[in-house]
Amino acid sequence: KNQVEQSPQSLIILEGKNCTLQCNYTVSPFSNLRWYKQDTGRGPVSLTIMTFSENTKSNGRYTATLDADTKQSSLHITASQLSDSASYICVVSAQAGNMLTFGGGTRLMVKP
Amino acid sequence: GAVVSQHPSWVICKSGTSVKIECRSLDFQATTMFWYRQFPKQSLMLMATSNEGSKATYEQGVEKDKFLINHASLTLSTLTVTSAHPEDSSFYICSARAVQGSRSNQPQHFGDGTRLSIL
């Protein structure tokens, strides 16, 4: 069964600090992995996408890593801002199909 | 970038009412659109896959007569919640995928969701 697990479920950090969110998956055959940011009451917005051969991808203060051998990914947020408060969802796509497997998300709160 | 518009963003109505939610891809054509449901503090759950010009494919446990999906054009899909009841209250999100390219590598672009509250 394809699964995506994220940790921690929730996280509170102070503004300006860094944090790292984790994603473990068992989706097979693997096609790509995306990190989405979902603000409260809004739809998810894509931050990064990585395929099998990519180890790291950056988007501003967001850096995602992928280890296809251990089936793990991380999202590192540098110098956090209040606007980073949101849910971060790891989504893994299997090859040749519509199927996306969603992680449960990490709810991040950045406090001043 | 690709934009998906969802309307309405919020609706409150009485029990027994049918509610229609629209999902439009504004600057690209989408043969496939997806409808998700999200409960508070939970991730998205796929309800159905909507294919232009054909019947939608529903996930297990989703009543097709309850959640009517129409995908009449490459830029519009609608979800109608028929005879809505309080337990149907939720956040409904659509997404659309562009026509060209490998299916698995084409990103899904999400709408901003519709918050449905049934009294």
Structural commentary:
- Chain A is mostly beta strands and 112 residues long.
- Chain A is 0% helix and 59% strand.
- Chain A has no helices and eleven strands.
- In chain A, strands 2, 4, 5, 9, 10 and 11 form a six-stranded mixed beta sheet that branches. In chain A, strands 1-3-8-7-6 form a five-stranded antiparallel beta sheet, with no helix packed on it.
- In chain A, strand 6 and strand 7 (62-67) form a beta hairpin.
- The radius of gyration of chain A is 13 Å and the shape is globular.
- Chain B is mainly β.
- Chain B has no helices and eleven strands.
- Chain B has strands spanning 4-7, 10-13, 19-25, 32-38, 45-51, 57-58, 67-73, 76-81, 90-97, 108-110, 114-118.
- In chain B, the strands form two sheets. In chain B, strands 2, 4, 5, 6, 9, 10 and 11 form a seven-stranded mixed beta sheet that branches. In chain B, strands 1-3-8-7 form a four-stranded antiparallel beta sheet, with no helix packed on it.
- Chain B is globular and about 40 Å long.
- The termini of chain B are far apart.
- The model of chain B has no long low-confidence stretch (mean pLDDT 89).
- The chains are: A mainly beta (112), B mainly beta (119).
